Amino acid sequence: MTDPAPAAPTERIEAIDTIRGVALLGILIINILAFGLPFRAVFDPTVDGSTTGIDFAAYFTMGFVFEGAMRALFSMLFGTGIAMLAASGKGAGVHYRRQLLLLGFGLIDAFVLLWAGDILVPYALAGMVLYFARNWRPRTLFVAAGIVFVYLVLCYGSFYAMLTIVPEQANAVQVRLDAGETVSVEDRAVLEGWRELEVNVEPTPDLLERERLKFQGTYWQSLGANAAEVIGLYVFALPYFIIWDAIACMLLGMALYKVGFLTGQCSQRLYVTTAIVGFGVGLTVNGFEMAMKIATDYAYEWVSGASVPTNDLGRVCM
User: Fold this and answer.
1) Residue 5 confidence (pLDDT)
2) pLDDT tens digits, one per residue of 170-204
3) 92-107 and 69-87 helices cross at what angle (nearest 10)?
4) Is the dihedral of CA 309, 58, 216, 113 positive or negative?
5) Which phi and psi (to 5°) does residue 299 adopt?
6) Sequence-distant contacts of 150-154: CB under 8 A, at least 24 apart
7) CA gap 170, 279 in Å, rounded
8) Which tens digits make up the pLDDT trace of 33-76?
9) Calpha distance 20→214 (Å, rounded)
10) Where are the domains of the chain?
11) Distance (Å, rounded) from C-alpha 3 to C-alpha 165?
């Protein structure tokens, strides 16, 4: 039977451990806001009034440099871990036991410890799927990651279109109703559909009150408010883009590990070139996205990463 014990210190790769530590601290920089403020405040400074001075400077820096990039890096390293485990000769039993434990910890984190931003559940589910890719060649992994990223761009683009087109259609229907006109069943469905979605995308008093209960209510009130949010994420976001976002980055991490990029085996020139191109593209894209957030007064289609088609380009390049 394969020994499931942790790797000995001599078996660890310091470069990967160091990068993982940097990624975790970077994730904390973003998540720490959501520990004590409505979750939307992470992306929209108007929610808590952080639109001037040092508060805005901190918000801009987080969005320009850290937001999404650290999670992408951590996801890549998770994929690297899958490839390393497979290379060590430990079988499916060890792999799936680890993923099931991770899934259990994630569910406790999300429902008992009241953290709707938990990533352990999607990581565990993605890890279960990616075991089947453990022996793929680097080129296959790169291609697979690219395909998933293209899917995500299409997914984000569709959501962006919905958030920019549907409200206009719904408002036009409402104007006609207010004028006493008769509208079709289809038009009424558009209006009702947008009204249902609007309560979750606009910082309405009801939405902010639900967020407040997560922090200021009793534990059971917090449990109920948080559970509703988590279940909504699992039903409407997890299967469509959250898990695919994790899978894409993990595939990329597996590929980079197999070509030696993450273990310092490539040329210095390649690392320097990658840094210059990556930061150049990443900061440009992130700067564009931050500019659009400000220009649109933090419209939801720009503050929500799930509706920004360039989201993955900026954070993965960083």
Assistant:
1) 58
2) 888 888 888 888 888 888 888 888 887 776 677 66
3) 150
4) positive
5) -60, 145
6) 151/244, 152/241, 152/244, 152/245, 152/248, 152/311, 152/312, 153/309, 153/312
7) 40
8) 888 777 778 888 888 778 889 999 989 999 999 888 999 999 99
9) 30
10) 14-156+237-317
11) 56
* Nearest-angstrom CA–CA distance, 76 and 88: 18
- The answer on pLDDT for 273 being more than 90 is yes
Spatial distance between the Cα atoms of 14 and 124, rounded to a whole number of angstroms:
24
Q: Tokens 């039903």 belong to which residue? A: 235
Which is more confident, 11 or 113? 113
Q: Dig out the tokens for 50 from the structure.
A: 């952080």
Q: How confident is the model at residue 10 (pLDDT cuts 50, 70, 90)?
A: low
Check residue 1 and give its pLDDT.
Answer: 46
Q: Tokens in use for 109?
A: 């984190």
Q: State the alpha helices, DSSP H only, in the chain.
A: 14-34, 53-61, 69-87, 92-107, 120-130, 138-178, 185-201, 205-216, 219-236, 243-258, 268-295, 300-303, 311-317
Whose tokens are 């987080």? That residue is 62
Q: How far is CA 33 from CA 36, 48, 202, 263, 318, in A?
A: 6, 11, 19, 33, 21
Q: Which tokens in the block code for residue 284?
A: 């440009």
Closest CA to 78 of 256, 235, 239, 230: 256
Provide the pLDDT confidence category of residue 109 given band limits of 50, 70 and 90: very high
* 247 vs 241: CA distance, rounded Å: 10
